[in-house]
Amino acid sequence: MADYSADIQKYTSKVNKAAVESIVKFCGIALKGVDSQWVSVTDPTEVKRVVTGFCAKKLGLDARTAEAAIKAVGEKMKEDKTKHRVTVYYLVAEHTGTLAKLG
User: Fold this and answer.
1) What CATH number has the domain bearing residue 56?
2) Residue 38 in contact with residue 82, Cβ under 8 Å?
3) CB-based contacts of 9: which residues, under 8 Å, 6+ apart?
């Protein structure tokens, strides 16, 4: 397994390893794809996929809250041209106070 925690630590001081493992398990095969391991926070189709997939199913967030969180995470990560799916999902959960639902 890749060290996703190192990437997450670029944006937050403390990393919940159980939450990271839960995200990795949720993503499954998507993390192996060349393109699917990344999230484009500026692509409406990709944002909708994250909102209806991870945010709704795993975190129980409504669309408005999820979209706002993705926007905030995109701002936080704006210097990084490639936004890893695990990092984005983790930061969305952290931003919305739903990390406990992951681990």
Assistant:
1) 1.10.238.120
2) yes
3) 15
Q: What is the DSSP letter of 30?
A: G
Q: What is the pLDDT of residue 51?
A: 97
Identity of the amino acid at 5:
S
Q: What angle do CA 89, 98, 46 make, to 5 degrees?
A: 30
Q: How many domains does the chain have?
A: 1
Using an 8 Å Cβ cutoff, are 46 and 81 in contact?
no
Q: What is the mean pLDDT of each run of 10 residues along the chain (103 residues)?
A: 86 94 94 91 95 97 97 95 95 97 88
